[in-house]
Amino acid sequence: MDMPVPNAAVIAKKEHVVARLAEVLPEGAVIHDPAETRAYECDALAAYRCPPMAAVLPGSTAEVAAVLRICHEEGVPVVPRGSGTSLAGGAMPTADSVILGVARLNRVLEVDYDNRVIRVEAGRTNLSVTGAVEADGFFYAPDPSSQLACAIAGNIAMNSGGAHCLKYGVTTNNLLGVTLVTMDGTVVEIGGAYMDAGGYDWLGVICGSEGQLGVVTEATLRILPKPEGARPVLMGFDSSEVAGACVADIIKAGVLPVAIEFMDRPCIRATEAFAGAGYPDCEALLIVEVEGSPAEIDEQLGLIKQIARRHDPVELRESGSEAESAAIWKGRKSAFGAMGQLGDYMCLDGTIPVSALPHVLRRIGEMSAEFGLGVANVFHAGDGNMHPLILFDANTPGDLERCEAFGAAILKLCVEVGGCLTGEHGVGIEKRDLMGVQFDPVDLEAQMRVKDVFDPGWLLNPAKVFPLEASAGRRAG
Amino acid sequence: MMRPGTEAELAEAVAAAAGPLRILGGGTRPVGRPVEGEALSVAGLSGVVLYEPGALTLVVRAGTPLEEVERVLAGEGQRLAFEPMDHRVLLGGSGVPTIGGVVAGNVSGPRRVQAGACRDALIGVRFVDGRGAVIRNGGRVMKNVTGYDLVKLMAGSRGTLGVLSEVAFKLLPVPESVATVTLHEADGARAFEAMTRAMKSPFEVSGAAWLPGKGEVHLRLEGFAGSVAYRAGRLRALLAGPGEVTVETGAEANARLWRAIRDVEALAGHAFVWRVSMAPGAMRAGLRADLDRTARFDRVVDWAGGLCWIGMTEAQAADYAPRFGAADAVAGAIRFHRDLQAEMADPELGGGHATLVKGPEALRAAVPVFQPEPAPLAALARGLRAQFDPRGILNPGLMG
């Protein structure tokens, strides 16, 4: 993975920059000892590492603004960091950069049930947002699987999704306002507890901009009343084509499940060996969950089972209790852990049109043989967001490179069939150099022009999202 | 009027333009400051590019009539969940609304509270920027975080950053059944209380509107028949108190009622109409007492109190004018507009924005039609326009 050559002039003035940062931050909030900056050398894409020049942990919007103003004046690149759970290298630093961590910004500022919003500082973890309102019967809908650890700031930067987004949407559909600090230290208030923007849709473009347009310090999020209940049905099929057709029929029938999860045979076998959830040994397995009152759930699951029966399932198991629901979800929830038992794996994140599912699964199987690496598929079938897990051995020379090549081939396939490189993890450094597969130079140019407006000097997380050669001229400036 | 028939011709027309362009779909939504420029119609770019009912996705050329889109979707029992209003009812006019116009205005109806706005259903765009370059963003899948989201930026940018040539949507199935629970004789306090209670319930209300003129609060439920009946019963119990509660389950009656709310029919005869977006709680508190006391106007309240349409007749506006030494209805409306936007800018009220949706050209030319943005955002907006339209030829001045 190429990263830009660090700016020697910036590294040379480290002491000066650190001293200036220490002037505007409380004691302990500036980390510059090389032994300590290592803690920030990578995020969850741990294959790539580089300690930053320094890391800062501001505790207020004013402190964030002060930090950015100094770095702007000094020409120091800044890499914003939430909880460091990015699977795409979104928070990976360069040797000449300052990591701006928002972890200390974790307070709930306001809970407003009448307007169904919560305002939090952006370093607060995703799950603890729901935690702040669930006793009163509310929840925050986006639920990325890292939700115990991941920060709202990172969710906004990556426009994170989750298992329930088929019904509730992703971060951008649940974000109503932000306090944003741009690279020159300007504090901008956008949106609020109301439902649409007056002028341009600033929230729309900030959400998913991977920390390249500004640092979000506070966010107003939509909260929803919890449904009365939820219950899944599990179904197994002899072929993934049939499972795919069943998904399409469920969607067409007008049921709006809260989740439709898909697992293929390699994944089913791995989870069975690991968790023993009692899944059938079949080619494709679906877990479909619906919400509502007990009677509403019965009505929807009845219809779903009726549709499933038309596709000759080898197994059809409706949950009748909390315990049965937990048993059905047990395997799915342990899928990543189960794959980890088999060795190292790389988790991909492409999205495809649901109709292309059988073709893509077949091709992935063929490519698995070509590359000589095992692969298992587990994904959100309702929206076509795939997470193929490629197995490799990090200790075998050449395996990681083969795995990367296989991953790139799968993502290219996703684009080829009308999908995209990343559905919810983001581009970061991981898919940066594949952007040319999905976009023409003119499309990337249009996106980079937006960054030019927010951050003309390209100091904020500059080596991400765009292929390095495409952004080279701008970053040099 | 220029009327290209293909995206390539559209790009050529923009690239070759010698001066400002006035971008049109069906021309049924003349909202914003009047634009001086050569008319460029996108209506020639028409037709469905791709429709996959099983994937709930539609890709369609921007000039396609909205009616055609809705007809095609209805054939498969699907729809655009965001329920775009037909501005012809409020603004008059006889053009054919296009899907591109809907996107350019981010036009979203009562179901916004549950299913999201137009920008939430929009998953892909193709557009021609001010240089004449064709740019793609998003795609045809629901989950996509590849690169910046210019899709949402284009929604609601009213042709000032680019001319839409193609748009892609996430769709939803038309539910089997619909019912509206109506609370009668509701004053402001009762109405907001009822809407807030309904939205805080788990019953998935897909429309919550108050028609002050009739004293009615309407709460819509959609889904499978059994579920709708169950939720209607629960909601009815939730609203028990002063004021009769009725339930309407007829499909036709429901369609009529929500179309009327969507299209703000109650204010169709008013000369001046504003659209105010605020937090429901702030809306409930009402406009500043001085404005409430001094101005006479009519309202339609949607989005569970988050959206308020304010209508003034000529007589009502003229009545507002003399208090401030103004001479006529337009002068009164100008004064009211300024007062309204000043209230929105007051942070103590929690923020929001007011847009003049209907008024004569003279009025729209005299005031900032859209809520002026705080200085840092206004600077970013200028920066964006300079990047996407360096010659300043795309609907210049329309958004201020």
UniProtKB/TrEMBL annotation, chain A:
Domain FAD-binding PCMH-type: 48-226
Any one Gene Ontology molecular-function term assigned to this protein's record: oxidoreductase activity
Keyword flag Oxidoreductase: yes
Keyword entries, A-Z: FAD, Flavoprotein, Oxidoreductase
Pfam families: FAD-oxidase_C (PF02913), FAD_binding_4 (PF01565)
InterPro entries hit by this protein: FAD-bd_oxidored_4_C, FAD-bd_PCMH, FAD-bd_PCMH-like_sf, FAD-bd_PCMH_sub2, FAD-linked_Oxase-like_C, FAD-linked_OxidoTrans_Type4, Oxid_FAD_bind_N, Vanillyl_alc_oxidase_C-sub2
UniProt entry tagged with the keyword Flavoprotein: yes
Cross-referenced SUPFAM superfamilies: FAD-binding/transporter-associated domain-like, FAD-linked oxidases, C-terminal domain
UniProt lineage: Bacteria, Pseudomonadati, Pseudomonadota, Alphaproteobacteria, Rhodobacterales
Protein name (record): Glycolate oxidase
Source species: Rhodovulum steppense
Required cofactor names: FAD
UniProtKB/TrEMBL annotation, chain B:
Keyword list, A-Z: FAD, Flavoprotein
InterPro entries the UniProt entry points to: FAD-bd_PCMH, FAD-bd_PCMH-like_sf, FAD-bd_PCMH_sub2, FAD-linked_Oxase-like_C, Oxid_FAD_bind_N
Listed GO MF terms: catalytic activity; FAD binding
FAD-binding PCMH-type domain ranges (all copies): 1-174
Top-level taxon of origin: Bacteria
Keyword Flavoprotein: yes
A Pfam family that the UniProt record links to this protein: FAD_binding_4
The name this protein goes by in its record: Glycolate oxidase FAD binding subunit
Organism: Rhodovulum steppense
